[in-house]
Recover the amino acids of this structure.
């Protein structure tokens, strides 16, 4: 069976179970599905393995000697470097209390033993896809934040309008626009940018400028650089 994710690098999955038979079975099915798999027999070694190479996903047994799965999960969720690793609990415990506790301490899913191969593969794939989508969303948010800072820092006036709505209302202006025009953000938000043309449709100011140039009169030209951005679809 091939259950590969659409990714260049194979997802790295860490299996933690004190039962070698369970580890072999899980490792075989996940390897066949195209995943890179590491196996660990106890909780302490699992924490060390995560420090060496951060996995994309952990399948974690609950009942283990020494340090059980709950404690392993709590330690991982208490550290900034490992808090975002998705953890799927696998256990013979089928009591609602055990399942609730698993989710309360940070688990993303719970598989009850004995498990079905297809169930494990589907749950693993779903959690990896969710994790991948979260990373992509975080990257897009970071890009948008950089763009927002660049726009805000620009000395040019920048206006963003919503082209999906009637009359293209203004939804953003940067400080450069406020400085150039004298309008505050509060004054212009929701208005159509055409109001910047003013009420003088005879363009007398332009005619006065032409006459000044023609007659070679002294003066100080003023250049207003305003960039209009029309948003016609949702920003990802």
């Amino acid at each position: 069976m091939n259950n590969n994710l659409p990714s260049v690098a194979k997802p790295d999955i860490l299996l933690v179970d004190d039962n070698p038979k369970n580890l072999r079975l899980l490792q075989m099915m996940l390897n066949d599905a195209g995943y890179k798999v590491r196996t660990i027999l106890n909780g302490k070694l699992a924490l060390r393995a995560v420090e060496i190479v951060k996995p994309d996903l952990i399948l974690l047994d609950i009942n283990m000697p020494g340090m059980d799965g709950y404690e392993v999960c709590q330690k991982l969720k208490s550290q900034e470097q490992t808090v975002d690793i998705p953890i799927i609990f696998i256990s013979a415990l089928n009591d609602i209390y055990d399942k609730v506790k698993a989710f309360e301490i940070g688990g993303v899913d719970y598989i009850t033993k004995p498990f079905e191969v297809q169930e494990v593969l589907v749950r693993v794939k779903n959690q990896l896809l969710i994790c991948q989508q979260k990373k992509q969303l975080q990257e897009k948010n970071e890009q948008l934040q950089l763009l927002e800072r660049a726009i805000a820092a620009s000395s040019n006036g920048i206006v963003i309008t919503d082209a999906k709505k009637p009359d293209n209302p203004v939804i953003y202006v940067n400080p450069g626009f406020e400085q150039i025009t004298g309008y505050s953000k509060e004054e212009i938000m929701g208005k159509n940018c055409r109001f910047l043309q003013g009420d003088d449709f005879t363009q007398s100011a332009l005619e006065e400028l032409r006459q000044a140039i023609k007659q070679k009169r002294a003066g100080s030209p003023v250049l207003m650089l305003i960039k209009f951005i029309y948003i016609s679809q949702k920003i990802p």
